[in-house]
Specification:
By secondary structure, this protein is α/β, with parallel strands linked by helices. It is 36% helix and 20% strand.
Length: 557
């Protein structure tokens, strides 16, 4: 049997004009800004009119720790959204925009897969509506204005050794991680060490995804700490007088993007902060708008539940006053077997014992998620090689934890493959959740870190140099103590060692550095070897991407 590629399936899609998708939601044509025939932005003025409408129910899709075997979290999110529509519910999917870096690197695209995709797939995975370009431009405008301020006399007294604002680009380019800028003589400024991060790690990206209005966007941008003076007092973006111009570049990017699934159901795709560096959720604007327009909104959080779901609950839901009604943890037989010690090349062989061992990873996530008070279900994203015996192992394991698990065949069958899960999610959501974050904002910053490490990662302790602890205390004294924590950690393990699979215990969490995101209003805690500018793999996806006959894109997946 020949299995079609994702891009082949997407290319065969019978998309409806985006105005029809908007009409289904009750959005007037005048409030949709079309980008071609199949994608549009929703105006902020229209979103303002929705304020008094009741909210629908918010469903989070998260996952076990990812492996090279694949979990299919986005695919399941789309499949569940289509499944809810199929059983007669008015549902919208809310997802992040993909970054160009991973598309041309190792991960590939991020628009779902098989018959559970959002379309137009090529557009979404590439330039889309230009949001990431706007974020990159706004970020680098601030960089240029900082160096320009220093060049023209440095009236604010910035210590050039303490410029905290790096530049960004939306591509994996390890050569730019650490650079020296302003070389070439007096006319080019004062040489200093600098560097690049990937755009999805930019604080501007995080701010855009947490802002609730243009005014809130400008307020947050103004709060960004860009540098320090010699007495170590902070210099803010508003001191550089950059906030207004940056908002001008971002005004269209703040508008949520509307597209559709293969089954012509509405999907918001907006914003895309990295999940192992930033908070890994689509924009608050898109989520809140979707909640006003639908009975159910299915959204996802990046990577496994230890990173994505924790940040979704403790940062996004806390800041945006959201109450999730239910959560779905995605698992695959293949990935759980890898957590049980099976090599990738042996995954097609039935191995019930390894699967039982690997289920410890799922079990840890189930236990953790219950701590947030949200009802849970498990979606077993089905692969062709999965056996009935293996599926039953996961179902039985979930039942032991008081949770229902469902075999989901949405990749091959679309909404038909998630009907049972969708009906169960409705039942869970109707019961109501007892949602609460894992820590209170009154805790000290270091105690918040320790709470996450112990309650979610199950670490014995957190290791941090005195300089790190002192920095956290300094920020508390400066008024940042109520901020939530954004952990930057490997996605592949509960620990900071990506090779520790399953559910490791007896480990410690070493903090390498801490960063203040005063505009996004959280503290980034960098653990282990996490890079804010990834590199390309030995054989990047870019090597097989090109234009085929008739100008069609080939190799994008």
């Amino acid at each position: 049997m020949t299995v079609k590629s994702d891009i082949e399936i997407a290319r065969e899609a019978k998309m409806k004009p985006i105005m029809e998708i908007g009409k289904k939601l009750g959005i007037p044509e005048a409030d949709l800004v079309p980008y071609g025939h199949t994608k549009a932005k929703v105006t902020l003025s229209y979103i303002d009119t929705l304020a008094k409408k009741p909210d629908g129910k918010l469903i989070l899709v998260t996952a076990i720790n990812p492996t090279p075997a694949g979990e299919g979290k986005t695919t399941t999110t789309v499949g569940l959204g289509d499944g809810l529509n199929k059983i007669g519910k008015k549902a919208i999917v809310a997802l992040r925009e993909p970054s160009l870096g991973p598309c041309f690197g190792m991960k590939g695209g991020a628009a779902g897969g098989g018959y559970a995709q959002i379309v137009p797939m090529e557009d979404i995975n590439l330039h889309f509506t230009g949001d990431f370009h706007a974020i990159t431009s706004a970020h680098n405008l601030l960089s240029a204005m900082i160096d320009n301020h220093i060049y023209w006399g440095n009236e604010l007294g910035i210590d050039t050794r303490r410029v905290a604002w790096r530049r960004v680009m939306d591509m994996n380019d390890r050569a730019l991680r650490e650079i020296v800028c302003s070389l070439g003589g007096v006319a080019n400024g004062y040489p200093r060490e600098a560097g690049f991060d990937i755009t999805v790690a930019s604080e501007i990206m995080a701010i855009l995804c947490l802002a609730t209005s243009i005014a809130d966007l400008e307020r947050r941008i103004g709060q960004i700490v860009v540098a320090y003076k010699k007495d170590k007092t902070p210099v803010l973006a508003k001191d550089i007088k950059a906030a207004g111009a940056m908002v001008v570049l971002l005004k269209d990017a703040l508008q949520p993007n509307l597209v559709q699934t293969l089954e012509n159901n509405p999907a918001f795709v907006h914003g895309g902060p990295f999940a192992n560096i930033a908070h890994g959720c689509n924009s608050v604007m898109a989520t809140q708008t979707a909640l006003k327009l639908a009975d159910y909104v299915v959204t996802e959080a990046g990577f496994g539940a230890d990173l994505g779901a924790e940040k979704f609950f403790d940062i996004k839901c806390r800041k945006a006053n959201l109450t999730p009604a239910a959560a779905v943890i995605v698992a695959t037989v293949r990935a759980l077997k890898m957590h049980g010690g099976v090599a990738k090349e042996d995954l097609k062989k039935e191995n019930v014992e390894a699967l039982k061992k690997g289920c410890a990873n799922l079990g840890r996530h189930l236990e953790n998620m219950k701590k947030f008070g949200v009802p849970i279900a498990v979606a077993i994203n089905h692969f062709i090689a999965d056996t009935d015996a293996e599926i039953e192992v996961i179902k039985a394991f979930a039942k032991e934890h008081g949770v229902e698990a469902f075999k989901c065949t949405h990749w091959a069958e679309g909404s038909k493959g998630t009907e049972a899960l969708a009906k169960h999610v409705v039942t869970l959501a109707e019961k109501g959740s007892q949602f609460k974050p894992i820590y209170g904002e009154e805790l000290s910053l270091f105690d918040k870190v320790k709470t996450i490490a112990r309650e979610i990662y199950r670490a014995d302790d957190v290791i941090a140099d005195k300089s790190v602890r002192d920095q956290l205390k300094t920020w508390e004294a400066a008024g940042y103590g109520k901020f939530p924590i954004c952990m930057a950690k490997t996605q592949y393990s509960f620990s900071t060692d990506p090779n520790l699979k399953g559910a490791p215990t007896n480990h410690t969490i070493p903090i390498r550095e801490v960063r203040l995101s005063a505009g996004a209003e959280f503290i980034v805690v960098v653990c282990g070897e996490i890079m804010t500018m990834p590199g390309l793999p030995k054989v990047p996806s870019a090597e097989v991407i090109g234009l085929g006959k008739g100008g069609q894109i080939e190799g994008l997946f």
